[in-house]
Amino acid sequence: MIRALNTAATGMQAQQTNMDVISNNLANASTVGFKKSRAEFEDLLYHTVKEPGQASGLNSISPTGVQIGLGTRAAAVGKDMSTGSSMITKNPLDLQIEGGGFFQLQTADGEMVYTRDGQFKKDGEGRLIDKNGNVVQPEILIPAEATGIEVTPSGEVAIVTAANPQPTQIGQLEIVTFVNPAGLKAIGKNNFIPSPSSGQAQNTRPGLAGAGYLAQGQVEGSNVNIVDEMISMITAQRTYETNSKAVQAADQMLQTVNNLR
Question: For residues 11 and 244, what is the distance between their CA atoms, to the nearest angstrom?
């Protein structure tokens, strides 16, 4: 019975982790560029009473053996990197990657980070930055006299001025891709950094080498599906309750044994 208590406890702990992941998904349902996570589980070691295939007689073997599982644990929390829905803003500095890839940003301390959040702004020098002041790379400098900004699907940035209504190209945006984007390490603020699992960053023009095209005046919403997360939450809650019932049943059976005279 002690084993049953521990086994059921691992199930409760696993579902608590599952609820933590689901709660974070729901909390970020309106976060631009957010990628939902999914908890993945694995069973623990088994107590083998009889080996499968062990001889059970002179000319016979045990077809299945006796193996008693010892519970479960969270093995991984994977990121779903599928594209979220488009949100039209009509802001000329808002950009969406329609397909794979990330924007590259340089932080104040010189570190490179990567994001799907395309809500960009201008700083006091006219540089294109994100909401936290990280500078878009390659650096795009928008002059003060610019009256309009155009970004093509392939990343060319052009401006128009009162003196010159014809678009003049001032820079080229690049997209960064990874061999395994799900292996990126999330560091908050909608940003990721590479890990040994993701591979190295590969810069390319939008639309080439697996990178998506750019769309101006819109951003990518979260890929969280509220209905799916609610169903997962109810399932996790019911599983947690069932494991707690197993703990109660094991405790009652132990109590019965202790009351034997």
Answer: 9
Query: CA 6, CA 9: separation in Å to the nearest integer?
Result: 5
Give the whole-angstrom CA distance, residue 207 versus residue 172: 13
Same domain, 28 and 76: yes
What residues have CB less than 8 Å from 115, skipping those under 6 apart?
A: 33, 102, 103, 105, 130, 190, 191, 192
84-139 pLDDT, tens digit per residue, is 999 999 999 999 999 999 999 999 999 999 999 999 999 999 999 999 999 999 99
Mean pLDDT of 55-62: 77
Element (H, E) at 210: none
The whole domain housing 178 covers 86-220
Q: Tell me the two tokens of residue 138.
A: 């390659």
Centre a 10 Å sphere on the Cβ of residue 185 and count the other Cβ atoms it contains.
Answer: 13
Q: Cβ distance 120 to 151 under 8 Å?
A: no
Amino acid at 50: K
CA distances from 155 to 44, 122, 138, 178, 210 (A): 49, 17, 11, 19, 15
> For residue 132, what pLDDT is reported?
92
> Does residue 212 sit in the same domain as residue 229?
no
The answer to whether residues 93 and 38 belong to one domain is no
| pTM reported for the whole predicted model | 0.87
